[in-house]
């Protein structure tokens, strides 16, 4: 007997409805799950994008006080006193007694000038003085006689006054002739060429028999006497450092030909004005050289250590921002937002700069700030560096030595 076939399942409308509802719920769950997942991913993406938009910066706190700043400048040495000796009378050099390099004392005779014309003028002046005195004596005798006759009413008052007036004129003539003799005697004293002070003869530009013309400082000099127990050192300091030069500061000198010598000079004074052509301040230093090692005319390399300024703030040059608003640096506040501060450079040391306004030692300053950084931007601090480095090292540790022309 064959088995009986199962009866087919009848799908009723109720079952179809339930199945449709289940499928719809599943689809809705899938859609909602996808939407929620996408929203979460989008939120995470937005958060990541916002985090990436905040720039990471390195900050540091600036150091207080200027660096030990030494400037090296060329200088020239000159005698403490230097006097070119000119002739005050004309004539011929009769003799000279000191040559170059000879030490001399004040008043020591260097040479003698023979002055025949001056001698004749002096003789003539003395003769004129003798004549004037003779005329004065005669006028005085005559005036006395006429005064006696006036008392006896032998002459008029007018005649007596005329004789007294002639006596006064003759006395004035004697005074004039005596003054002329004194002038020529004073000129005659200049026939002896003498040293004005203790020193050495650094030049002799004449010889026996040479024609001497009284040039009054315009003609050729005969001798030059220099006092070299002390030397003057002249240095031209650039305008940027001129305000730091003060009397009493010391400087170290290096002189070619004296490699083992160490010479110390002291700033005596300055010209008090900047040369408009070179933009430099002329500084005078004094150097004691009683041993005579150095010579006037030597060139020297002068090292001057400028005084530190505790009010200055030292920054690396990489922290500076150059924009249309001027020179600025970017600082980070307590809320990690950027604040731009205008600064003024007091001294540029290359890799480092010293500023005198704009920031304090308590500010957090951004090193190598991004170009697009603006006021109020939020930043992420990657690390803090209290002592930023540069290629040349810190000037606080090594000092800053600069050469000037």
Describe this structure in words.
This protein is α+β, with helices and mostly antiparallel strands and 405 residues long. Among the domains are: 105 residues, conserved putative lor/sdh protein from methanococcus maripaludis s2 fold, CATH 2.40.420.20; 112 residues, Helix hairpin bin (Helix Hairpins). The protein is 29% helix and 35% strand. It is built from 5 helices and 23 strands. The strands form 4 sheets. Strands 1, 16, 17, 18, 21 and 22 form a 6-stranded mixed sheet that branches. α2 runs antiparallel to α3. The longest helix has 41 residues. The model has no long low-confidence stretch (mean pLDDT 82).
Write the layout of secondary structure elements.
Layout: H1 13-53, E1 56-60, E2 63-64, E3 69-85, E4 91-96, E5 103-104, E6 109-114, H2 116-151, H3 157-189, E7 192-194, E8 199-204, E9 211-212, E10 223-238, H4 239-242, E11 250-254, E12 263-274, E13 280-288, E14 299-306, E15 313-316, E16 321-323, E17 326-332, E18 338-342, E19 344-348, E20 352-357, E21 364-367, E22 380-384, H5 395-398, E23 400-403
Parallel strand pairs: 1-22, 3-23
Antiparallel strand pairs: 1-21, 2-15, 3-10, 3-14, 4-6, 4-9, 5-8, 6-7, 8-10, 10-13, 11-12, 11-14, 12-13, 15-20, 16-17, 17-18, 17-21, 19-20
Helix pairs in contact: 2-3
Number of strands: 23
Structural class computed from helices and strand pairing: alpha+beta
CATH fold naming of the domain at 83-194: Helix Hairpins
Order of helices and strands: HEEEEEEHHEEEEHEEEEEEEEEEEEHE
What overall geometry do the principal axes of the alpha carbons give? elongated
């Amino acid at each position: 007997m064959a088995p009986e076939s199962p009866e087919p399942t009848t799908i009723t409308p109720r079952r179809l409805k339930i199945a449709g509802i289940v499928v719809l719920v599943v689809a809705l769950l899938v859609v909602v799950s996808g939407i929620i997942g996408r929203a979460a991913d989008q939120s995470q993406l937005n958060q990541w994008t916002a985090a990436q938009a905040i720039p990471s910066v390195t900050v540091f706190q600036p150091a207080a006080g200027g660096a030990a700043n030494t400037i090296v400048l060329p200088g020239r040495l000159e005698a403490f006193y230097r006097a070119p000796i000119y002739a005050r009378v004309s004539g011929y050099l009769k003799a000279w007694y000191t040559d170059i390099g000879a030490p001399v004392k004040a008043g020591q005779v260097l040479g003698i000038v023979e002055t025949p014309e001056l001698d004749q003028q002096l003789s003539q002046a003395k003769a004129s003085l003798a004549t004037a005195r003779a005329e004065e004596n005669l006028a005085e005798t005559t005036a006395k006689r006429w005064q006696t006759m006036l008392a006896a009413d032998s002459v008029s008052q007018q005649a007596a006054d005329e004789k007294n007036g002639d006596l006064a004129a003759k006395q004035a003539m004697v005074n004039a002739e005596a003054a002329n003799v004194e002038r020529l005697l004073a000129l005659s004293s200049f026939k002896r060429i003498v040293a004005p002070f203790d020193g050495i003869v650094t030049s002799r530009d004449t010889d026996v028999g040479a024609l001497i013309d009284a040039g009054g400082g315009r003609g050729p000099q005969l001798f030059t006497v220099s006092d070299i127990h002390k030397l003057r050192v002249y240095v031209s300091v650039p305008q940027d450092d001129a305000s730091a030069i003060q009397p009493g500061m010391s400087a170290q000198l290096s002189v070619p030909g004296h490699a083992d010598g160490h010479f110390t000079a002291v700033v005596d004074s300055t010209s008090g004005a900047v040369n408009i052509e070179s933009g430099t301040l002329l500084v005078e230093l004094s150097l004691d050289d009683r041993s005579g090692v150095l010579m006037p005319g030597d060139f020297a390399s002068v090292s001057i250590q400028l005084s530190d300024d505790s009010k200055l703030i030292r920054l690396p040059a990489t922290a500076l921002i150059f924009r249309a608003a001027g020179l600025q640096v970017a600082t980070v506040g307590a809320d990690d937002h950027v604040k731009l501060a205008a600064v003024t450079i007091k001294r540029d040391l290359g890799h480092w700069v010293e500023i005198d306004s704009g920031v304090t030692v308590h500010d957090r300053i951004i090193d190598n700030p991004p170009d697009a950084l603006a006021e109020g931007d939020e930043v992420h601090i990657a690390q803090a560096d209290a002592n930023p480095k540069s290629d040349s090292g810190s000037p606080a540790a090594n000092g800053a030595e600069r050469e000037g022309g």
